[in-house]
Amino acid sequence: MDEDYGDVTPITHDAHPGADAEPNIDELLQGALGTYGQIETTEFDGNFTNEDVKKLTRTWLNEKQAPDLLPYQDQLVGDLTEMVQNQLQLVDALQEESAGQAFIAMLYQSELERIKFVIRSYLKVRLQKIERYIMLYASSEDHLARMSLGERAFAVRYKSLFENHLHKTCLDKLPESLRSLDENNGNISMVTVPNLRSAVVCRVLTNVGDYAITETETVDMRKDNIFLVSYDSIQNLLDSHSIELI
Amino acid sequence: MLGDSAYKLALETKRTQTHLPSYNEALVHHLCREARHALNRIEESLVALETLPLSGQQDTRALAAQLAVLHASVKRTKRSLLAYHVQRLRFLKEIFWTVGTIPEEIKPRLSPAELDFFSHYAIAINRYRAPFIDVDLTALEVPPKDLYIEIRVLQDCGEIQLENGSLLLSKNSQHHVKRSDVEHLIAQGLLQHLA
Q: Domain GINS subunit: where (chain A) (predicted)?
């Protein structure tokens, strides 16, 4: 990588650049910005990365707001975790170089921390939903299909863990007829299900035109409009990426 | 009175939302016994109902009412029991995600089954997060603002390994460190994050 930075003003390797000479901030910044521009064009395609990060942020917000589990974005998470790995190596390499590069490395690290946070939060929100609605999700083909391999394995493990615990602590001490975990008690089912009629705020991404949000009500959905609607009425718009949840 | 103990347990469940009291083995045991007993009485009443002569209208109605009440109480007992245990599991999971291990002062308050659940839950999560090692799934869920933060040491932590070198964290000392290096110690309350 060394030869790529031919135009960068050489800066001493000293940990405290100010210790031996007057630090020239302009020079430092110029060197830094020059490097930044170069990495942008040579190391990876800036546009591509931005698109993926944007998509991830959208996916994460959708998942956070939707009451039900959304399909897992395998490709996206895979690509981004790989990118994070590569960037971490790049940062390590940069830090070995001069103070200017170390400054750039810091910018990269901050950005990486942010991306890592979004991925982490996305995965965690999904795990929380799986745990919460485990009795429904673990036996619903539809929901299992929306999980990643890891999530499915976790769901199976968690369900047996959860059931075992309840059996061990109290159910097994009850008469046999009372031991099930999926009966109805009056009108209340024991299986917790997500409330698909809960309200969500959505922004329209592409013109949809007239859309029936209830049996009797139709709204004109244009790009950038924002609506407060019940989740089940716009579920298929979300699937087709015509809207995003905010 | 019928349903009193179940109410007590439900009340305790509500309290568990904010802190974790000792596992109430005695009450759980008592409720299980109560439920078994109530179910026996239901069965007796059913037998009585079948053998009752058709003419005894008054008795039939009394028995039916008794059955309905008993049945409702058994269902309610079961619901309280489950709510109690599930709420405690929720608390345990919260501990797992914020602290990572069970603090010593909480351990005696847990039942053996709960300790078991905790360790198996940790295994399940660890298996899940293995492919995402760089993302560090158990890090705090606070949006990162700064890469480096100012911290004050509240309790001696000894020497910790940083990305580049090691650092001695002695009580009351203050450091400027990388956030991701010390995040878990902040979660455990050993360090304080200064502005």
A: 103-167
